[in-house]
């Protein structure tokens, strides 16, 4: 069980990191689109923003079940530890 919990925590950390990265890229590409004087570059940056937002939505959809898995496994482990420590 501890291995499954560690795997779920690792997956959650990976998701959180990827979410932060995508959010940063969205901000950067949005800013670049606003600053460039060239229409073709503006379109490219906006297209990239749309793609980052799509991926971000998928990551956020995956994150909530992963949080629930971590919570469930952590609770189960606490119950087991409490039973093992009981006199």
What does this protein structure show overall?
- By secondary structure, this protein is mainly α.
- Helices cover 93% and strands 0% of the residues.
- It contains 2 helices and no strands.
- Helix 1 (2-35) packs antiparallel against helix 2.
- The longest helix is centred in the last third of the chain and has 47 residues, at 39-85.
- The radius of gyration is 20 Å and the shape is rod-shaped.
- It starts with a helix and ends with a helix.
- The model has no long low-confidence stretch (mean pLDDT 95).
User: Mean of residue pLDDT?
Assistant: 95
Q: Percent of residues in helical segments?
A: over 70%
Radius of gyration equals 20 Å
Beta-strand proportion? under 5%
Shape designation: rod-shaped
Biggest β-sheet description:
none
- Secondary structure category: mainly alpha
List keywords for this structure.
single chain; 87 residues; mainly alpha; 2 helices; rod-shaped
In short:
With 87 residues, the protein is mainly α. It has two helices and no strands. The longest helix is centred in the last third of the chain and has 47 residues, at 39-85.
What is this structure's SSE topology?
Layout: H1 2-35, H2 39-85
Helix pairs in contact: 1-2
């Amino acid at each position: 069980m501890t291995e499954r919990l560690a795997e779920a925590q690792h997956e959650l950390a990976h998701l959180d990191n990827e979410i932060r990265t995508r959010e940063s890229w969205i901000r950067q590409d949005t800013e670049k689109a606003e600053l460039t004087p060239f229409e073709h570059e503006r379109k490219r940056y906006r297209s990239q923003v749309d793609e980052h937002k799509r991926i971000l939505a998928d990551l956020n959809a995956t994150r909530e079940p992963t949080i629930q898995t971590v919570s469930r496994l952590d609770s189960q482990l606490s119950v087991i530890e409490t039973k093992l420590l009981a006199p």
